[in-house]
Amino acid sequence: MKDSTKYAHLGRPKPELATAVNPDITRASTLLFDKAEDLYRSDIRAYGRHGSAVHDAVCDAFNHLEGGVGTSLTPSGLAACTLAIMSCVKSGDHILITDSVYGPTRSFCQGYLLTMGVETELYQPRIGAKIEERIRPNTSLIFLESPGSLTFEIQDLPKISKIARSKGVKTVVDNTWSAGLTYNPLKLGADISVHAATKYIGGHSDIMFGAVISRDEKTAKQVDKTRKFLGYATSPDDAYQILRGFRSLTTRFERQEQSSQELAEWLSGQNYVHRVLHPALPEHPDHDIWQRDFSGGGCLFGVVLKQVDQKSVLKFMNGLSNFGLGFSYGGFESVAIPCDPQLGRQFDPELSGPLIRFGCGLEDVNDLKGDIKQSSNAAF
User: Fold this and answer.
1) pTM for the complete prediction?
2) Tens digits of residue pLDDT in 159-173
3) What is the CATH number that goes with domain 3-244?
């Protein structure tokens, strides 16, 4: 069954007499019982924090998306990342995170985890099998993001996960870029895949949500146990919106992916561009790994400009009209940000010029090209 068909039907009530096509939203904190004997049963929900039928439908959708056996839901993408990490570490542990990881995830590891007695070590994202040299006896986790945030390096997950598994080390992958449609970390050996469902799956830039999907039952139970310890909960209204986003996910993603590819190819030929950071382009240094492990692209990519001053970069950004200036991506509106203010790395990528990140929405790609053209003509 194709994804578009699958996500149109998952989590829907069984049709009876005049059955609503969507599941009901149950808004509740207190859940009542008719027998006191049932209050402390472990096989049923006892409190609204633990979800409802619509939450179950969303978990089912994520399990299908990633081929996982259990999903825990969180109130944001960052919360999904931190939940996955906290489920795998304890005081005294050492963890490895890619230097190209999402900035707030990096800050959590280097800040909060440090106070908890967990040491974080950054590694060069193209390390591949040499990751083995960084693993210590107390290493408990390797956190990957592929493509890397802002700079779009592709990691060799099969090599890294094979080595990690042989050492008893968990691997977690932030898989937000692909929406889970063009990349499947769990099939490539990862233990956990993480999503900021805020982006593609929400799809309309109006909701915060995250998901942690586990490959095996033991890991899934540990993640959910940690979720309960931390008190993470998501509202039924938000879960309903995420489930609705799944219905049109593949259609929106295909449009955004196509626009991203065409825009990246077009920008590669512009005289003010030094290079384009999109793994689907043959000139990308990790294109071969991308072809091997991915079935397609995503909406997000980077553009390294030729040397221009900051004033010109800001003039270009402020001249855009079809691209909103804002963080996140995966919604209906295209967005762009200048990346240099947040591009702090231990292993500095060789960029040679200012970096701009583009995320394609649902606008016509020719209108996006025209927007960039008019603004670049005025700025560069």
Assistant:
1) 0.96
2) 999 999 999 999 999
3) 3.40.640.10
